[in-house]
């Protein structure tokens, strides 16, 4: 645990210095709790960045579990591998380089947990593309869903309105579709936690 915390602290410092978006401390506590309770065997992460949330996921896998994570920025992948190696978890992780919208449909397996933290305007597209890969009872966590509070107050600057509209569409989908049971947490920049109830709930 000391090794894990030491690497996480180093990653936080790196992220602050180089302006890399990572899950914040408060959100990380909830994220860790939910992941630990899910005890997932197979995890899909959409958006690796430098591997901060990847490390939290790997630390809470079921024995013999694996994280498949997707990132298109090759420089960030290099740093992610560096930190994940330092933490001693790289062997539990498969990093796929590419655009998530193109990669997700080709990824195999049935996932117990999916973490979405990539292009905010594409959240619903990612979810639709992963739905046939969800195990019964799978947990889907989406970060930054309240997007600076603009999802709630409808005051987004013009250049962000498309993203806000698409995030609202994501939240509407996971809130209203009977295949999901969703709770939105007002911490950090907002986190939506959805439990997949299966196609039988259509």
UniProtKB/TrEMBL annotation:
Reaction catalysed by this enzyme: 5-hydroxyuridine(34) in tRNA + S-adenosyl-L-methionine = 5-methoxyuridine(34) in tRNA + S-adenosyl-L-homocysteine + H(+)
Binding site residues for S-adenosyl-L-methionine: 23, 53, 71, 117
PROSITE patterns given in the database record: SAM_OMT_I
Presence of the UniProt keyword Zinc in the record: no
Superkingdom in the source lineage: Bacteria
InterPro entries in alphabetical order: SAM-dependent_MTases_sf, SAM_O-MeTrfase, TrmR_methyltr
Gene Ontology BP term (one): methylation
Keywords: Magnesium, Metal-binding, Methyltransferase, S-adenosyl-L-methionine, Transferase, tRNA processing
Keyword Iron tagged: no
A GO molecular-function descriptor: methyltransferase activity
Amino-acid positions noted as binding Mg(2+) in the UniProt annotation, renumbered to this chain: 117, 143-144
Record Pfam families: Methyltransf_3
Entry EC number(s): 2.1.1.-
PANTHER family associated with the record: CATECHOL O-METHYLTRANSFERASE 1-RELATED (PTHR43836:SF2)
Family: Belongs to the class I-like SAM-binding methyltransferase superfamily. Cation-dependent O-methyltransferase family.
Subunit structure of this chain's protein: Homodimer.
Protein purpose: Catalyzes the methylation of 5-hydroxyuridine (ho5U) to form 5-methoxyuridine (mo5U) at position 34 in tRNAs.
UniProt name for this protein: tRNA 5-hydroxyuridine methyltransferase
Lineage: Bacteria, Bacillati, Bacillota, Negativicutes, Selenomonadales
